[in-house]
Write a structure and sequence with these properties.
This protein has 756 residues and is mostly beta strands. 3% of the residues lie in helices and 55% in strands. A hairpin with an 8-residue loop joins β4 and β5. It comes from Luteibacter yeojuensis.
């Protein structure tokens, strides 16, 4: 079996194997393995389901007792999904109703829940899916791409979360929980190497520092060689590579049961390729690749590079006074980035193909586009007071403060003359928000309880944009200062049907604060979107079998959204604008299942059906700039009427399935096979419908085959991601070309893991 093509240098393999040997030696000093230890990712010897604790409502509770539609993605699943170097986008279609895509590469993910998301690619874009890392909201889309490593679990909360998470969470919340320090010495290391020089090294170690202090250090390094040939320059393996590194340091102070303090410092460094644009790769009149399309090659005369640096720190303080608890959570996040990509596909300064054989793969102008974030500073502060969770009446109240200050530069670049060609735009944005909130849960009887909450939020944004160069000269400064204040909340009733099953009904609302779009390279005005609001209705069922071998949760929902903020991206005008739709309707169903079919055969499954529909008879957007087949009716101005369309990047069907089968061997070993598959139905890329700009249904699978020993403390496995080597269009650019974004090819590799 070959993990890399003959042209790939073996040097990286030597490095990866050397790291593996060193880490293995380092972990060989572990203490004697307890007899009840379990292999990583293996089902317990008792073959029964363990309780999953979550913090969806900002207190620790059993997943089965929380009346919210949610999925928990375990650390074992994350390790399997991310073996080929996938970042946070690995969560796409891994949970019911969750989808993700990007036009930016590894640093800028765009998430959608129940069809609700935002396709805006500007660096101040707000999203209706809130991402919360260790209780700190990651507001800027650049912050949302922090790699997944040394995590306890990921919690996906579907539906509005306006009470406890506030603004910009009308679609839901994705909540990441890092593994915390303990007084026990523990840690792990894993390394892998695969096709295209895909190498991963991840490690963590933690334990007692003193009788009152414990600490944990976690680190990740991911690498891929360039694997896309540039036929224009003749350079092999020119694009597609990256180096992504991240670190997290934590220290926990706990001298008594009455007070504890946790400090977290983290950082990320990313260098490599930006998103690779595949100019004119989509067939006219269909959603297929042009004949002869090759995923491993492009023709580009420009440059492609990306650099990112983020760092942050947060401090969690907890006091316990009898049956009262007081928490203070302070967060600081900072980021800078620069991303440059070629979009013309290989045209020279005269506007003709530099190489005639590439005529069908280029665009009739030469251009590169770049975005920079020279400053992003975010400060958050939350205070919460709550009572003990053992009480019949559980309550919590709190305050929240958010302050973000960002600066953005975007421009179109002339490679030949090395200067901005179609505009140089500077943007600045300052956002301040504050809120007060409260929630209560009262157990009326042993079989019935009610949860209710409310939040008052205030949001103020000051935005300025100025164009210094462009086709029509300087413009600006242009300003916008939207302000909004409103209530959000929820009401839920839960009925206990039996010892192991319950049903709940939930009504919740939420909102997204006003947004501003100021990418004015080709425009003379900025656009401001009014706040969007949502009301959601949900009925759910949660159950566990009496023998604790099966867990099944399901729900149905319906929502109505008013003034949904939509992004009309590009099109014939090449202008990105924010618009509001009068009404958007959605409804669907979701389920999660987890089961032991035999003591050695464990599986999970999940699925969703999501219907979305825009309801605004007069809403129209600019369609593609030529070379595509628009199927929507056009108004007198030639714009596409989008009433009745589904939302972009909103697959109707999502399904996910994992299975693990183990064969015990000897006293402490096990052979195993683990596989995971995820499916999503067709998605449309833009607000208007066309024959070209959509993606066919996609089924992707992964597999791990390996052996673990010493009760799971050592493991070696072969793996493959995208095992069928499926090639699919994942996104597009619709200005004067049919540019496609494409998924990664099949990756085959080997991995070693060791635990203390």
């Amino acid at each position: 079996m070959s993990f890399a093509s003959p042209r790939r240098t073996p040097r990286r393999l030597v490095i990866a194997l050397s790291i593996a040997a060193a880490l293995a030696a380092g972990t060989a000093i572990a203490q004697d393995t307890p007899q009840d230890a379990q292999p990583s990712g293996a089902p317990p010897r008792t073959a029964t389901l363990q309780t999953i604790n979550v913090t969806a409502e900002k207190r620790t509770e059993d997943l089965q007792k929380v009346p919210i539609s949610m999925t928990v993605v375990t650390a074992e699943k994350l390790e399997a999904f991310g073996q080929a170097g996938d970042g946070v986008l690995q969560l796409a279609s891994r949970a019911p109703s969750v989808y993700a895509e990007t036009s930016y590469g590894r640093e800028f993910p765009r998430f959608y829940i129940r069809g609700l998301g935002n396709s805006d690619f500007d660096l101040n874009a707000s999203q209706p899916v809130s991402m919360v890392y260790d209780d700190i909201v990651q507001e800027n889309p650049i912050l949302k791409g922090f790699p997944l490593f040394d995590l306890e679990q990921v919690e996906v909360l579907r539906g509005p979360q306006g009470t406890l998470f506030g603004r910009n969470s009308p679609a839901g919340v994705i909540k990441f929980e890092s593994r915390k320090p303990t007084q026990e010495t523990e840690g792990y290391a894993r390394v892998s190497y695969g096709s295209y020089g895909t190498a991963n090294a991840e490690a963590a170690i933690g334990g007692k520092l003193s009788s009152s202090w414990s600490g944990r250090v976690s680190a990740l390094a991911q690498h891929r060689d360039g694997w896309i040939d540039n036929d224009y320059t003749g350079k092999k393996d020119d694009l597609g590579g990256y180096n992504d590194r991240a670190i997290r340091l934590q220290a926990l102070y706990k001298a008594s049961e009455d007070f504890d303090a946790l400090i977290n410092v983290h950082g990320r460094w990313l260098d490599g390729s930006a998103m690779v644009n595949r100019a004119n790769s989509i067939t006219l009149g269909g959603d297929q690749f042009v004949p002869g399309f090759d995923r491993d090659s492009v023709s580009q005369d420009g440059r492609n590079k990306q650099h990112l640096f983020t760092w942050g720190s947060n401090l969690h303080l907890n006091w316990h006074f009898g049956d009262l608890n007081f928490a203070s959570i302070t967060g600081l996040e900072r980021a800078t980035t620069y991303s440059l990509g070629d979009v013309d596909g290989g045209y020279d300064a005269s506007g003709t193909p530099a190489k005639p054989s590439f005529t069908n793969r280029v665009t009739p102008f030469y251009s590169e586009t770049a975005d920079a974030l020279p400053k992003d500073r975010q400060i958050t502060q939350e205070f919460r007071l709550s009572n003990d969770s053992a009480e019949r009446l559980k309550w919590q109240v709190g305050t929240y403060y958010f302050d973000e200050d960002i600066a953005i530069t975007n421009f179109s670049y002339d490679t030949l003359n090395h200067h901005a060609l179609n505009g140089w735009v500077d943007q600045s944005q300052r956002t301040k928000a504050w809120a007060v909130f409260g929630s209560a849960d009262y157990q009326f009887t042993d079989d019935f309880d009610v949860r209710a909450g409310a939040r008052w939020s205030h949001d103020k944004r000051d935005f300025k944009a100025e164009r210094f160069l462009g086709f029509t000269g300087p413009v600006g400064p242009l300003t916008s200062s939207p302000t909004d204040a409103r209530w959000s909340g929820d009401l839920t009733g839960t009925w206990q049907l039996s010892k192991n099953s319950n049903v709940y009904a939930r009504i919740a609302n939420g909102f997204r604060a006003p947004s501003v779009q100021g990418r004015i390279n080709f425009a003379n005005s900025i656009s401001t979107a009014k706040p969007e609001t949502i009301t959601s209705y949900e009925i759910g069922y949660k159950s566990t079998s009496d023998d604790n071998k099966l867990r099944f949760n399901a729900d149905v929902y319906k929502y109505n959204m008013h003034n949904q903020q939509l992004t009309a991206v590009g099109g014939a005008t090449n202008v990105t604008q924010l618009i509001n739709a009068k009404k958007t309707e959605g409804y669907g169903a979701e389920f999660d299942l987890e089961a032991y079919l035999t003591p050695n055969f464990y599986m999970t499954a999940g699925g969703s059906y999501n219907h979305t529909e825009l309801k605004d008879r007069n809403l129209a957007v600019a369609p593609c700039g030529g070379g595509c087949t628009v199927v929507d009716p056009l108004n007198a101005s030639g714009n596409a009427l989008i009433d009745g369309n589904v939302l972009p990047n909103a697959p109707k069907w999502i399904g996910t399935w994992t299975a693990r089968y183990g064969i015990p061997y000897g006293e402490s070993g096990e052979f195993f096979v683990y596989t995971d598959w995820n499916y999503r139905s067709e998605v449309n890329f833009f607000l208007y419908d066309s024959e070209e700009f959509r993606s066919k249904p996609f089924l992707e699978g992964g597999i791990r085959i390996g052996y673990n020993w010493e009760f799971g403390k050592r493991e070696i496995a072969l793996y493959s991601r995208n095992i069928t080597n499926k090639k699919v269009i994942t996104g597009g650019i619709d200005f004067n070309n049919r540019t496609a974004f494409v998924n990664d090819p099949r990756i085959i590799g080997v991995e070693f893991r060791a635990e203390l």
